[in-house]
Amino acid sequence: xxxxxxxxxxxxxxxxxxxxxxxxxxxxxxxxxxxxxxxxxxxxxxxxxxxxxxxxxxxxxxxxxxxxxxxxxxxxxxxxxxxxxxxxxxxxxxxxxxxxxxxxxxxxxxxxxxxxxxxxxxxxxxxxxxxxxxxxxxxxxxxxxxxxxxxxxxxxxxxxxxxxxxxxxxxxxxxxxxxxxxxxxxxxxxxxxxxxxxxxxxxxxxxxxxxxxxxxxxxxxxxxxxxxxxxxxxxxxxxxxxxxxxxxxxxxxxxxxxxxxxxxxxxxxxxxxxxxxxxxxxxxxxxxxxxxxxxxxxxxxxxxxxxxxxxxxxxxxxxxxxxxxxxxxxxxxxxxxxxxx
Length: 341
Description:
This protein is of the alpha/beta class.
């Protein structure tokens, strides 16, 4: 499944578990998702976004770097017997997601601690409130990210979800979150540069996480050329140089406002890079007030697949566009093109 699909599934699981709690069910009936995927997919970022959307809190625990005593609670002597202090990171109230990251990378001691959280909602005698839902994540063994084999009793308790990187799915997700339109348009155009496999030697390389983080780089108070060079520090020099060239095309696009003002005579690009860049600019500037003009321009495009890209990103960014008569008329005429998006 792609990243937005993972967010949808995780939301459904969290709501289902909370419904079980409200019905008085046992915590052993809860589903515990385990997200598998390459480094850089942003699995923890999605979990945090899901928690925010639900109005919950998220607590993050990196199982690969935590000391077992810190994870399981420091031992202490009380009344002549050894007890363990409650770990300060273990929630005591409210509703939330307890995100156990790097589960396959954890040492055996930490895996055993995680196992009791997964199966029994507790660490030793310290209970995790039933209104907190455990979610796990980690990388594949072939990523060479320090993975170990999880015990079968842990694996068998989890809902295993394989996450993959999909440039078009990310673009739609990014449009809804106000990510820089140049990043969105570029990744629709150069989908092969969206995600490179994990490299132990490269300091920076393209991943969904690094493309999303590049949005903040492009907001820096720097000259445009220098900002684009800095973006290469997030996504790697190869993708960075190619993205910088795309940005130059984006900067030289026909005036979007002129196209909206006169959609019947607006310039239609004849090369894919400029077409993708222009669709990104139009989708970013679309409003209910000007959408009829944008749709009128899109109807003139010889390849309607570009129009679909613009429609998908524009409506993801602003759902109010979907109730306009311009959108509804276009969707009725081109529904078969939208079905794959």
